[in-house]
Amino acid sequence: MDSGLRVDLHGKRALVTGGARGLGASISRRLAGAGASVLVADLRKDLARELCDELGERGGDARFVEMDVRDSEAVAEVFRDLDGEGRPVDILVNNAAVDVSKPIEHLTADEVTRVVTTNLLGPVYLCLETYRRMVARGGGHIVNILSTAANRTWTEAGPYAAGKSGLRAFTHTLFKEAQRDCPGIGITGIIAGGMETPFILERFPDADVSMLQSPDIVADTVLYALSVPAGSAVSELVVVPRREPSWP
Q1: Are 39 and 89 in contact (CB under 8 A)?
Q2: Is 248's pLDDT higher than 90?
């Protein structure tokens, strides 16, 4: 599926977490198609490398970056390595996320920790490393992928909703600080409704796909956020299937 949106990202370097499949892969393809050099960060090494090979065959510039977003020191090390290359991250897309769909009474502490650390602390660690460098350079763009769960939750989604709600609040705060610190930095939160991706279909194989949207549509909103002229800002976007049951 080709996007009708045209954005020129030649000369820009983008880092996409959870970039190997699903929405992350769609975003990586869109960014590479717009000319960006894409760093695909994912724990699924084989899938990430396959995607990078695919993008390379299409004329894009992409490579795999090994990173566990839950490990703040590992995140910092990646950025130190990038500093050594002399090619900073111009665009950060925090997309990596996990979920454990269980009633709260059956959750374990380890499950809660994994979800909240991946979905909230991980993106915060990435933002900490990226934002200070963007301030020093005077520009850049951070996109945090949120969820309808950041605004309205449902049963069996306690840790997931807590993580996404927290990330939404953090994104709003970062937007306000960027207004103060550096007008050249864009901060965007994208609230995405249900998508036809492994994130949903692996957990709910009987899901009605007619109620879901293509991840390519959500990836297009990332390009749109990056396309807005410097005098304006896209602080938050909502993109949901027309029959989305969890919004508003």
Answers
A1: yes
A2: no
CA distance 178 to 122: 20
Which residues are 142's β-sheet partners?
92, 187
Structure tokens at 47: 């899938």
Residues acting as catalytic residues: 160
Return the residue matching tokens 């925090």.
Answer: 94
pLDDT grade for 1, boundaries at 50, 70 and 90: very low
Residues 206-219 pLDDT 10s: 888 888 999 999 99
* CA trace torsion 161, 162, 168, 171 (10° rounding): -140
For 70, other C-beta atoms within 10 Å of its C-beta total: 19
How many Cα atoms within 13 Å fall on the side-chain side of residue 163? Answer: 30
Residue type, 100: V
Tokens of 96: 């990596």
- pLDDT tens sequence across 192-239: 999 889 888 888 888 888 889 999 999 999 999 999 998 899 999 999
Distances (CA, A) of 184 to 76, 167, 181, 211, 226: 23, 22, 9, 38, 12
pTM for this model (two decimals): 0.95
Q: Using N-to-C axis directions, what is the helix angle for 215-227 and 22-33, rounded to 10°?
A: 40
If residue 159 lies in a helix (H) or strand (E), which one and from where to where? helix 158-181
Closest CA to 197 of 1, 28, 54, 23: 23
How far apart CA 5 and CA 34 sit, in angstroms, is 9
Residue 25 has pLDDT above 90, yes or no: yes
Q: At what angle do helices 158-181 and 109-116 cross, to 10 degrees?
A: 30
